[in-house]
Design brief:
- The protein is mostly helical.
- The protein has one domain (about 5-345).
- It is built from 16 helices and four strands.
- It has helices at about 5-10, 25-50, 55-80, 85-95, 105-115, 135-140, 140-150, 155-170, 175-180, 180-210, 215-245, 260-265, 280-285, 285-290, 300-310, 320-330; strands at about 270, 315-320, 335, 340-345.
- The strands form two sheets. Strands 1-2 form a two-stranded parallel sheet. The chain has a two-stranded antiparallel sheet with strand order 3-4.
- Strand 3 and strand 4 (about 340-345) form a beta hairpin.
- Helix 2 packs across helix 11 and helix 3 crosses helix 11.
């Protein structure tokens, strides 16, 4: 492992209030990304409901889902104050970018900025793809064990984001952590729900003009259900790949967790075999994002190279392939927090015992 003290790293990594040494945010570049993917979103949405052959509509709906994912990346950067200079610019660009995603900005900041980034890969705090231990799995009900098997299968991302993230954490302030300050979160929830309702209304009106022969249910299916399902799958699979791998540790308590362990040792740089969507390729330089959340997405590749040069093998990476994805799915079912390794559903180790940085006393 790289010789670097965990506590000295903790002083600078993954804090929302940290100002980067070099501010790489660009108003022009950030606005360009917002406008570009906003235009592509509406263009693919129109194609999804236009009176074209049904196959073309479905393909356009999937493309629209990809555009939602790109707008999500834009909004995600805005919520970190990273896309452009200026708090208000980021706040309002983020709110509008999150309308197709149907996410409240304030709830996203709570679950993602505070919980996920605040304690990355710490079970009980980080809410995303937290693995069960063999003991927890054995004690769970048959229905819960079945659900975990579904989540940890190739079909898992189809339903995971709907069930575990979007509805309970991102839409209304109903989660345990959000209820205490529900009045603060409610305006953003109302804003995004109103924006979504307006989008559906405009969609149905436009469809009644250009494709009056199609029933309303088909318009909603092609213009929202297919795109949103595509986005949900891509979002769930992406976060899974960022923090799930036989070489990535998870933690059960603060004694073993540290910012270095969670944000460097617990985060993966997933390299794309083909750079079809540059913005998506950039955001997968995920270690760089976790070590400085104020780095804009378009600057992450350079930051990732610098981290790799500084910390060597601690910065983990691989090139995504079907074979590698199947290996991860097969190996990463449960996590044994005592042995610090991934296991199958029987508790048999499927990966190495992971070493982490010892946390120094304060």
């Amino acid at each position: 492992m790289a010789a670097f003290g965990a506590e000295s790293f903790d002083a600078t990594v993954a804090r929302e209030e940290v100002t980067p040494d070099v501010d790489r945010r660009s108003l022009a570049r950030g606005l360009l990304l917002f406008v570009l993917y906003g235009v592509l979103y509406f263009a693919t949405l129109i194609d999804a409901i236009a009176p074209f052959p049904l196959l073309l509509n479905v393909l356009s709906g999937i493309g629209n889902g990809i555009c939602i994912a790109m707008l999500f990346i834009v909004g995600h950067d805005c919520c970190h104050g990273a896309l452009v200079p200026g708090r208000r610019w980021n706040l309002w660009l983020g709110r509008f970018a999150f309308i197709p995603v149907i996410h409240s900005v304030s709830l996203w900041r709570l679950a993602h900025n505070q919980h996920h980034h605040g304690r990355t890969n710490l079970k009980g705090v980080d809410p995303v793809w937290a693995p069960m231990s063999p003991a927890e799995y054995a004690a769970a009900s048959p229905a819960r064990r079945w659900l975990e098997r579904v989540y940890r299968s190739a079909f898992g991302p189809v339903i995971y984001y709907y069930c575990e993230i979007w509805i309970p954490l991102m839409l209304l302030p109903v989660s345990r952590s959000a209820r205490a300050e529900w009045k603060r979160h409610l305006p953003d929830s109302i804003f995004v729900i109103a924006g979504f309702a307006a989008t559906i209304g405009i969609l149905c009106f436009f469809a009644s003009v250009v494709a009056p022969q199609r029933p309303l249910w088909m318009i909603v299916l092609l213009g929202w259900v297919v795109p949103y399902a595509s986005w949900n799958y891509l979002a769930a699979a992406t976060v899974y790949l960022n923090h799930t791998h036989p070489d990535l540790p998870w933690f059960r308590d603060e004694r073993s967790w540290s910012s270095y362990n969670g944000n460097v040792l617990g985060t993966m740089h997933v390299k794309m075999p083909i750079d079809i969507f540059p913005l998506y390729t950039d955001v997968m330089a995920h270690v760089a994002h976790h070590t400085n959340v104020r780095t804009p997405v378009y600057a992450l590749p350079d930051e990732q190279k610098a981290l790799k040069a500084r910390f060597g093998a601690d910065v983990k990476e691989y090139t995504l392939s079907v074979r590698e994805y199947r290996r991860i799915l097969s190996a990463c079912k449960l996590f044994d927090f005592e042995r610090m390794c991934w296991t199958d559903f029987s508790g048999v180790a499927t990966g190495p015992s992971l070493r982490v940085q010892a946390r120094e006393a304060a």
